[in-house]
Amino acid sequence: MVDEPILRLDHVTKQFPGVRALHDVHMALYPGQVTALLGENGAGKSTIVKILTGIYRPDAGAIHIGGKLQSFSSPRDAWRSGVSAIHQETVMFDDLTVAENIFMGHMPLRSGKRIDWQLMNARAAELLKSVDADFGSEVLLKRLGVAQKHLVEIARALSHDSRIVIMDEPTSALSAREISDLFLIIAQLKAEGRAILFISHKFDEIFRVADRWVCLRDGEHVGEGLIKDVEPRGLVKLMVGRPIDQVFPKKKIEIGEPVLEVVGLSNPTEFADVSFTLHKGEILGFYGLVGAGRSETMQALFGVSKATAGVVKLNGKTLAISSTADAIVSGIAYVPEDRQVQGTVLPFGIRENTTLASLHQHTDKGILSRVSEQKITRKLGGRLSVKAAHWEQRLNELSGGNQQKVVIAKWLATSPKILILDEPTKGIDVGSKAAVHEFMGELASEGLAVILISSELPEIMGMADRIMVMHEGRIVKNFTRAEATAEAIVTAATGGGHHAAA
Amino acid sequence: MSGPSRYDVADRAPRTLIDFMLRWETILIGLLIAVVIGNTIISPYFLDIYNLSDATFNFSEKAIIALGMTLLILVRDIDLSVAAIIALASLAMGLAADAGAGTGLLIPIGLGVGAICGAFNGLLVARIGLPSIVVTIGTMSLFRGLAQVILGDQAITKYPAAFQTLGQGYLIKWPPIPYSFALFLVLAAIFTFVLHKTAFGRKLFAMGNNPIAAQFSGIPVNRIRFWLFVLTGLLAGVAAILLTARIGSTRPNIALGWELEVITAVILGGVSIAGGAGTIPGVVLAVFILGLATFGLSLVNVPGIVISVLLGLLLIVSIAMPIVVRRLLKGKPVV
Ligand SMILES: Nc1ncnc2c1ncn2[C@@H]1O[C@H](COP(=O)(O)OP(=O)(O)OP(=O)(O)O)[C@@H](O)[C@H]1O
Ligand SMILES: [Mg+2]
User: Fold this and answer.
1) What is the pLDDT of residues A355-392, one digit of tens each?
2) Under CATH, to which class is B47-319 assigned?
3) Which residues surround ligand 2, an ion (CB under 5 A)?
4) Do A152 and A278 fall within a single domain?
């Protein structure tokens, strides 16, 4: 290997009020190699990404690219120097087309500084094809789902043709097939000699794509090396500072009587004839590709949108849910997939977010009790190990994984009878993920019924008692825990093996 | 894993003096003191309890509407038709008075017309989903146009004396507190309590910051928006009663341009035009600043037009100031 780094980061320090996000961190990226950046939620990974892309300025330290000292004061500077990134939280323009979003800030021009629409749309279409997107380049962004937006974000990073490509949790919104496509792209980028920084909380992915690793803990560099010299256990220990059991602790739970019966739930565009029964103490998994209609189905159950046909029964009684407020009163909670848009009020603090869906529990004669709010916030925030300077800290100052923990806390605070989790551990580190799973198991054993939508096979196979697989808006197959194999699930999800729903 | 969190998280942020000094309400209090001192210097008549009490007549009606407008702007809506609602409500009361209606009937008519106009706005915005700025620009012309068509260029002046006391009389003789000002103070206290101490208030802030997440958290976003329009219409009805009673007449150009004065007070009060941030005490302070500045300047015979220019400048400078100060504190360039 020619081991001359293309990018070097030395003695980088970044302080936020009350939090030292990075302290004397160093890192190097090599051409034609993938470096994985590891660390718990709030370890400082995204902060490094933001420093490398000119969004934050480091308090101290230097960045060298190709041996030259760089100082970025805007994202533009960064991609001029050959760095582009897929950010953890996408910032895009809902009212513009996919192509405009991809080329925002660097649209191809004709003479006279006019935009070359034809060229732009054609190049966007090419990029979309390379990420295997199922939508065109002239669609408005707001028509797309979270995962599709993520594909746009990936296409945008590729559009810069950069020497250094950074991917901050690029797979968190994607399912198995899209992830395989992304890995093909990464292989291609490697072959072209580009340097890649890859951030993920999923070890199987890291061991599949990465050549090197760098590990952060609480903003400090705690180790680095070659992937071939390590195994997951060692990395986890380094990350967390103590060993952790990564396997999902599935408890044996007595499955009770049916709580929720759904028959023939349909909507003209998103899902059709969805029927299933959820029992007390059961964890029912829903698997499918991006766009299979899982989130839409659950949102209809939760009263966000309306189903046009079908019957929903709760404890044997037909349920008419016409708003989210109705759903919450009936004991249904929904942890949404898109935490930035649907899950959090970013300018609110942790306490205000945690209690938002259960405010009536904290009022005394109409007056909100801060003491009571603080109590539940401390309890759930502590249980989910939210990392923050204080409980009033605004959500937009938390790391992605910690925001996700607050969203989960918000829904647990409603003490639901039915908990619908839509990609609940998205962006959550291994240790906290184990904690969330343990919590889920515990709640199920107390009689809670859980619906778990996940695009992570190990999670769904590890946690669910039964697995429903959806494809193009329909349940195409269901498996019991014993029957389920990864292969069969994925085949069903891609539309292979045409079996009717049982 | 089930042990206590390994992170130590404090309950509250450490508080700093700079944060307190840069709070909008602190700045407004400074501004209010400056206005009072300035007025005392330019006119010997300013610091007179009867004159001050007189001054409240001129801003209490607008101030009452500003309370409703604050909530609307907080949830990302706006109502530009409030002054036109006053015209329509005043006309309805005028027609009823002409037909011999007494005070007991005029009040519900004024309130009712206000609430119905508000409900009409609310329906178009929250039910049909039209942008509130577009809807209320439309209803602004619609409501006032209707009043003008029906009234022509006459005026209705036959109001019962008892009705007129509502706008001209005093609740307490000493210190002299007019009904309108007393009502404003009571409403301001209620609004402060509801917005800052109750679950409903928290929901409004959530809606203003992220309406989608608010809906996903079980907040009936559109229903609340509808009722806020009704509330603001109702408050415009209250203002219509007080104003009509005070001037004892209904003219087609009644309360012309008030919507902008109301919105000015809300914005100077620190309510973000993008929604999601603001306080009632801030708006109350802004109402006093604007009302007393106008009063002081008119005492020394500054023409109305010049007063608007000065108030416009005041608004721009006071909104720019904290931003400039923050940048200076952070060592960033100011422009
Ligand atoms: N704008 C900010 N203001 C204050 N603190 C911040 C800000 N941005 C990040 N932090 C803090 O810096 C620390 C590092 O955050 P960062 O986003 O880099 O974590 P991360 O490693 O990407 O975590 P995750 O895996 O959850 O995405 C966190 O404790 C976070 O709360
Ligand atoms: Mg991150």
Assistant:
1) 999 999 999 888 999 999 999 999 999 989 899 999 99
2) mainly alpha
3) A 46, 88, 399-400
4) no
